[in-house]
Each structure stands twice: as structure tokens, then as C-alpha cells.
């Protein structure tokens, strides 16, 4: 009974308290990434992350996982809106790091005929049946970091990634692989958690650890920001870039319910060298700090999920090209004066 009430409380702010901050960025430096030059630094334990997702998918027959789909479903809905702005029908779309198909379930025959769902967690990939999709579905169990081992180069019209890329170790290399897997003039749409995600939880845990244990350790994963994504997309070879930022704020009764939902989402800490436990008194102190620093008047606490949305195109001769600098016939000053 308590669980149902908590989840309803967590979901309602998605409709009433969403904070939309849209900042555009577009950077396309000429330098390219050589994915074979230096191996990626291992920040995340990919095997641990796969096991976390597997456990979340089978807990209570998958019902607990479905209960906490609210953040991913909201982000997938916003990502589909961006895809609908692209006035093109695709024969096939690759959903990279699909999970059970939060994004793919929103696709219809006006957007595509078929979707390829690829995820490192086989149990999460097969959590939901094909009957829940409006388009044909094919599932591929593979690691997102090794995309080109299972997907041929120049084979995809569109690749989408909804809340998966924040767990890859070699983000520049994966972006290069995505670009290589696309056909010329193919499009990539992505959504990933940004650096301000769960800042309330991060600061509360850090202050509690300093107070109770005399030091801090990472409990919330390092994440990128919008400027980094602009640079990485440009260096990977994408053109016609768009990067914008949204925030999803969710209210919880306390920090404890947030931690439980993160576990059921498969979003627990997977940083290499992480601590596998936190002292109970440290968590109790963090919960009190969380409520004191960030709590609402009604006794709930907020959790902020910052989401970075990106769009990039693989270069092709027939794509629109920007005019040369200085070729404009009307100055910006004159346009603003009128």
C-alpha cells in the first residue's frame, strides 16, 4: 500500500512540476577522433551495470521495474517529439541501449516500419512482449560499447539512444561507432543524463560523509554536460548539430524512496572502485541533510534529472551546407533595427 502511494507521488510532478530549460549549442570543430589511438579509461564496471539491470528486470516478476519507468517514459516521450520534427519516414530505426523499449513503444507506422532494440541486459531487453509495440521488433543482446561488432557500417538510417550513453566508458568512441553505423545522411538522436542529475542526493551524501566519516567517496556517477556533447559530436564527425537541455523534477517522501527507486531502475552506482556499502548512520544523516537543504514545505524532497538531448547527422553530399562566413547580404544589426 505504501509503495503504491509513493509511486503515485513520484509520478504526479512529471505533469505539474517539469522544469524545461532549453539551451542550444552547436560546435563542429574540424579535428576528428581516432578511436584506435588510446584505449578508453575505465570509469564504469560494465559487468556490474549489466547485473544491476538484470536484477531490476526480474525483481517481483518485472513489476517493480515497470513501476519506476516514469522517468524513462517521460524522457522517451520528449525524444519522440524531436524525432517527429524530422519530416522523414525511416524503414528501420536502431534503439541503442533500449532497455525494455521505452522509446520504441512510442513509434508508429508513420515514423518507421521496424525497430531494432539493442541492450547489454538480456533480461531487461525481453522484459515486455512484442504485443506492446505498434511496429515490428527485433531484439539484439549486445554491449553498446561494441556496436560495430554486431551492426555493419553504413547500414542504419537512424540510431536513437534513450538514457543509456551515460553508462559507457568510451563515449567519444561510441559516438564514432554510431556515426560509422549510419548511412550517409543518417540521423542520430540521443538523450542522456547530464552533470546536474541528482545534485541534491550528491551534495547530501558528501556532507554526511564528511561529518560522519571525515571524507567522501563517489556515490553518483560522473556525467557530461551540454558543451561536452557538442564538442564530442563534432569531433566524431556529425554535422547539423543540435544540443538542448531539459530537467525532470520528481518529488519523493524522503531520500530512502529515491534510493529504492534508483535500484529498481537499474541506476545504482557502477563506478569502478566504488564502496559497496554506506554506514547506516551516514545515510540517516544524509537523509536529514537532504530534507533540510532541499525539502518542500509539504515534507517531500525533490530529485532533479537533467537530460541532455542531442541530434546529429552523418555527412552526405546532398545535405544543406552553411554559407561561407561574410557572405550574408543583410547585417544582423540592420535586421534587429527593423
TrEMBL record:
<dbReference type="InterPro" id="IPR050602">
    <property type="entry name" value="Malonyl-ACP_OMT"/>
</dbReference>
<dbReference type="GO" id="GO:0005739">
    <property type="term" value="C:mitochondrion"/>
</dbReference>
<feature type="region of interest" description="Disordered">
    <location>
        <begin position="319"/>
        <end position="338"/>
    </location>
</feature>
<dbReference type="Pfam" id="PF13489">
    <property type="entry name" value="Methyltransf_23"/>
</dbReference>
<dbReference type="InterPro" id="IPR029063">
    <property type="entry name" value="SAM-dependent_MTases_sf"/>
</dbReference>
<dbReference type="GO" id="GO:0032981">
    <property type="term" value="P:mitochondrial respiratory chain complex I assembly"/>
</dbReference>
<dbReference type="GO" id="GO:0032259">
    <property type="term" value="P:methylation"/>
</dbReference>
<dbReference type="GO" id="GO:0008168">
    <property type="term" value="F:methyltransferase activity"/>
</dbReference>
<keyword id="KW-0489">Methyltransferase</keyword>
<keyword id="KW-0808">Transferase</keyword>
<protein>
    <submittedName>
        <fullName>S-adenosyl-L-methionine-dependent methyltransferase</fullName>
    </submittedName>
</protein>
